Amino acid sequence: MALDITPIDPDDQPTLDVVHRIAATAEAIDEPDLPPLCRRRFEGALRHPMPGLDARWSVARLDGVPVGLVRLTLHLLDNTENASIELVVDPAYRRRGVGRALFGHARRLLGEAGCKRMVGATRAALPGEPDRELPGAAFAAALGAKAALAEVRRRLDVATLDHARLAGLLAEARAAAAGYRTVRWRDHPPEEYVADVADLEGRLMTDAPLGDLEWEPQRVDTEWIRGMERALDARGVRRYSVGAVHEASGRLIAWSLLSLAANTTRHAWQQITIVDPAHRGHRLGLLCKAENLEHTLGYEPELEVIDTYNAAANTHMIAINEQLGFRPAAGSTEWQLTI
Ligand SMILES: CC(C)(COP(=O)(O)OP(=O)(O)OC[C@H]1O[C@@H](n2cnc3c(N)ncnc32)[C@H](O)[C@@H]1OP(=O)(O)O)[C@@H](O)C(=O)NCCC(=O)NCCS
Known about the structure:
single chain; alpha+beta; twelve-stranded mixed β-sheet; binds coenzyme A
């Protein structure tokens, strides 16, 4: 049997269609409660990468049949020694060495590019979850990666949202947030707050607990935010945001974002929630997040579930999420491997 690994050209739609199908089939097994993998969002990571990211995808063919893919993301502005890896093999072709061969290809390519570490995530069991086969973790460990960060995906079932309780939490948060007011937006942040959004986004990755991951703060400026917005527009991602403005300075110092992929009206991701360290302790995280739920539901009446990832150790954010009704749905492990 001949195994061939070749780069994927962003304009090669037939190959993108096939690898999307492989990734969607694998995700439906690992994460059966998620909606189908959105093709526009999937392809967008290669066709419209975020500013400063270099996406390199390769497909593995066994006797000419596409059977797996590896998606590498290199960082050009910061974290230049780090790369992300997502590796998927068609469930019908597993345990034949395809994963190992794709990994070898990735390691070579990243070594040539001067990268020193790769980081990738696999599905993990939640405490108390019945044992079932989770091949990603066995694979990562077999290849010498170290588990660096435990994460939990929590889910809010919108039908069970207690609106009276939400109104109560919002009233309490507003009372604790004297001197701040909220602003809402869809998709693009208002021009006057773009620089503040860049400051908040820049500290996001390293403010949350990172476990043993070696990750530098991200370099973000207004140009980067505009580039990110263009990439998300091209992927068809709908975004809803609530921010908090410090009235004395006029600066946006907290922000929460929910997003929906182009192929769904029933599922959203709770993404960023961040409060500037100088303004913590005023319930601004809860305020922005809870108000953004109302904001989003106003535009997305068919929304049924919202998922969010947190580091298992991020007790503060988890407490907010639990107050809003989010409950554990799946585990995930971030692995790191020295090249
Ligand atoms: C993880 C995955 C990529 C492995 O692909 P694969 O082609 O089956 O992997 P290989 O055949 O090259 O396996 C390499 C080694 O990993 C380990 N391994 C892989 N699958 C395993 C499983 N189900 N149970 C136990 N060990 C496993 C074994 O040590 C194996 O070596 P061996 O077959 O000689 O014992 C595939 O199962 C997959 O796509 N999973 C979903 C996505 C994912 O979790 N990706 C990984 C992280 S980015």
